[in-house]
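Input structure tokens:
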């Protein structure tokens, strides 16, 4: 609409320029001098209006250049700048979201790897615990067997010692206990013939012979 109005003003000014004043008619004698003065003033006003119109047209033509610095078209520049900033902001937001998505994807992947490693560690730990439990059971079983064997050996030794003690007692009870009553007597194992008439060497006979001799 603004451009249409400018072209209309331009066409009106061009018509005013083509419509030159009729000087011949102005030179004709008029009935009154006042009318001639009024017409001259009118011409001068027309010239001034034409001059001002041309000046205004020039300024308006400068505006029609769509200069971004002109206030009238500043809203167009502002709108374009706003749109450009909106697109840049949208691009930045998209890029930021893309980066966030990449980071989250990376974190999810790292979390999955961590979970896998943790599961492997837990499985290995469980296997170690089972192995330790088996070893503990085996060690306990071996210890129990060793205790049983040691107890059996001790019992066997006790039985052997008891039997040996009984055998010693039995042998000691069967051993003869023959001891001489006097130092001068002859042993029973090696008897000697005396010079007495009886010719005996038993202790009883010797004692009897000694009594008789006294």
């Amino acid at each position: 609409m603004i451009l249409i109005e400018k072209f209309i003003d331009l066409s009106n000014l061009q018509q005013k320029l083509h419509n030159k004043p009729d000087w011949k008619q102005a030179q004709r004698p008029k009935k009154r001098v006042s009318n001639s003065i009024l017409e001259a003033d009118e011409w001068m006003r027309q010239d001034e209006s034409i001059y001002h119109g041309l000046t205004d047209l020039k300024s308006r033509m400068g505006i029609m250049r769509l200069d971004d610095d002109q206030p009238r078209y500043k809203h167009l520049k502002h709108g374009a700048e706003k749109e450009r900033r909106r697109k840049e902001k949208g691009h930045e937001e998209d890029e930021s979201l893309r980066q966030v998505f990449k980071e989250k994807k990376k974190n999810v992947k790292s979390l999955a790897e961590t979970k896998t490693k943790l599961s492997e560690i837990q499985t290995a730990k469980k296997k170690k615990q089972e192995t330790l439990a088996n070893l503990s059971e085996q060690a306990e079983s071996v210890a129990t067997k060793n205790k049983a064997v040691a107890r059996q050996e001790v019992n066997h030794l006790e039985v052997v010692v008891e039997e040996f003690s009984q055998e010693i007692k039995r042998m000691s009870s069967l051993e003869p206990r023959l001891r001489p009553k006097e130092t001068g007597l002859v042993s029973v194992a090696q008897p000697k013939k005396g010079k007495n008439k009886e010719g005996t060497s038993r202790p009883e006979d010797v004692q009897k012979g000694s009594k008789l001799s006294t």
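The first helix runs from residue 2 to 18. The CA atoms of residues 195 and 201 lie 10 Å apart.
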